[in-house]
């Protein structure tokens, strides 16, 4: 049992929503040799309702709707040399896939590289190239990673054992593209010219990378029009105009098969995918040499937004329009003016800054912004700001004006924060008088309340906005209010993450506080309903039942069916995301030359960045408590179904990948999983000795690939399964 070497078993394992048995039993093997059945039979039947697959008729799901228009953040730490001795080495890598607020960092062996613990943040110079100089003693191994604003690692470029190396006599490196490490295995697509198989689309070469092969899938007619149009459109303005033309140019719409009056949901999904890649710098913009001020971009955004207002309203279409809108620039009157963003011109001509700074601002920012604006200009502005903000010999008055301009530029790219947006709305009296008190109430709870009161305040304010949207006219007030609504939903995600942590901690002890769980869950369902990521009728019913239970003593017997229903809302959302995006994002990404990793994780990002992901964590904690209180088997089915394959035991999924065991179908008995791995194509079922969130990366992958997946609440029931399985060998 302590030996974690692979132990294949000769009998296949079949796990279904209500039974688990071996192929030996089906052929007449003694039931004594199949005692594995009883333990999981009850467990999976108990849990199958939680993880049952439902196909949403709407095809809708999340509302991530982040505002990731550029890389870096305003208060990027100053570059400094790390470590006391050794030689100085300049590290350089190219990375385009950071999101707004993220930076590339390096971490490795030795003090200068953070001792594999503390990443050293790099600087874009210029984006997408990242540089940093560190002190290195002799030879050293290292990797690049992405860090969030708080300096915590958000993603490794490669989670395997393959590292980069710097030689002892090297004083600079050019490591090429982020994520492509020399010596790391590369997945090769099959030579056939047909459509990709499920294995092609979802099998990664290394579990830690979340890599998904782009396969050989062909873009459909409309998607190919986007790909070709992007190739002919160099600048950001031209790319936005290409999207606008689908709605306004009859000839282009007819050529693409695009219905301008009633666009198909799949066409809106493709536009959303394209604009997402464009806004996150996955699709590069070029300076085409024309002369179009930012007002041209603002007017294009207004035209696209107005066309979206006329789209036939279905939950799926509403979700997609909601996703598209924050990816457009602002069309506030400040930016539709004939000469917008004039502050930077005044800044560039100040007499209290050195010539090198004047030239940098004038040539790399002012002229570019007023001639051919694009998301890369925000990166340039942040670079300039980060270079001068801590310089003591730079004028304070200049810094003040530059800081104000940074805010204006972020507003143009819709990359500002929620507080700033609400402050601006309060000053302008938008969208109406009734909203003022609700926004002030939200601010009070945001800075003085707790998760429950904040969620309640968010729900009240968003409900008011929802009613206001029904009669409001197209215009800048509508756009600003919609962006506040999106920001409120994102803030609700953060509050639900806090609530999920509380419930998960409680479930490991005496059990969840049912009143707390029901309260935060009903607020989450209210927000999901307002974003149309949950069926309105079902959400209303669940909210009413939760409020009914909150008024009396709650027991597990009553809570369990409610938890099952609420969890189905979450899994329906996950399934809808796959249906909406999975088959489109891979060929579109390939055609646009997008990094394969960014395309591969698109669907999962939609799921895990949505409020319903955090709700699923809360509900799963409640389901665990209910099982214990009802004396039910300690198993959860992340993906019910049937799986046939040889049993093999490994310590972890990573260990299985390292073993390079391929070919025959397997059902794995695993003691541990990080939750961030991918599932190789020959794995047909997994029995895991720990809990995992229903919508974890691994859970989403299992649902995508149809891999049957059962999780144990602890090692004791898992060890019973292992013991029963071993009896089949002798």
TrEMBL record:
SMART domains: CBM_2
Region: Disordered, residue numbers: 173-198
Keywords: ATP-binding, Kinase, Magnesium, Metal-binding, Nucleotide-binding, Transferase
Cross-referenced Pfam families: CBM_20, GWD1_pHisD
Cofactor(s) in the UniProt record: Mg(2+)
GO terms assigned for molecular function: ATP binding; kinase activity; metal ion binding; starch binding
Record domain CBM20: where: 81-184
Stored InterPro entries: Carb-bd-like_fold, CBM20, GWD1_pHisD, Ig-like_fold
Protein name: CBM20 domain-containing protein
Lineage: Eukaryota, Cryptophyceae, Cryptomonadales, Hemiselmidaceae, Hemiselmis
